[in-house]
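QA checklist item 7 of 12: single-chain prediction sanity check.
[x] sequence parsed
[x] length recorded as 293
[x] structure emitted
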Amino acid sequence: MMETIIKEIETKNVLTKSNLPVGDYSVNPYVGCTHACKYCYADFMKRFTHHPEPWGDFLDVKIWPEIKNPQKYAGKEVFFGSVTDPYVPQEVACQRTRTLLEQLQGSDIKLSIQTKSDLVLRDIDLIKTFPDARVGFSINTLDEGFKDDMDKAVSIERRLAAMKQVHDAGIRTTCFISPIFPGITDVPAIIDRVKNQCNLIWLENLNLRGRYKGVILDYIKEKHPELMSLYDEIYHHGSRLYWEALDTRIRSYASEKGLDYVRNDDSMKKPFDAPPVIVNFFYHEEVKKSARK
């Protein structure tokens, strides 16, 4: 196995203005991500960073000037983790995410964090100081074998346990069921598992493009040949029938369980102890307009 190539790089500003529906600014304390998810869309970053190494085999640790006036970001939503996980294993030693949280203390930002790691538990003390902070955990399967095939992050059980601890600490939590693999991801089963320990559930479909399209389709062909016709229908012929059927199924499931199922995130308007809101983000080209309504 190739050893991860780690180096420090200097950057003028670690907060970047964002067009994402989940934040005014995005924060990525690292370039690259050692979770090495096979379906990771963020490997497009190599076009700009010119890393010759495979995605997942390198990590650039960002060093930035200390933020001395964090109040200038007051009221803005700041999203940690748009193209890297802010809690990669190297964060234990590098502490770039914790350093930034410390620098943003008292800024009155709307903090959102997305991770596949339970290392976020280390920073509960800091996260709780941000009003209405939200921590999301990416979970797209309850099958540890499939998870291990797809990424090097911590186990699903560790993510679920961390989600509960964060939620029990009074911090809003999100379960990001993404990407949903057709015929593999059991969405209702995941919702059943997390519905008492999160405030929001995001649903996002598997969107195959670029280099990893072939990687995933080769995996399906080898490990799930019975699904190849379905994947061909979706990813070579552009059919939406599977997603439309899943949408109908989840809508019915949500109704049975007394859960809100919507196309926009209004979870912050609900009491902390209310049942989670399920948000459908199946169609990527519609995410921005649906989330901004």
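[x] summary fact logged: The radius of gyration is 19 Å.
[ ] second reviewer sign-off
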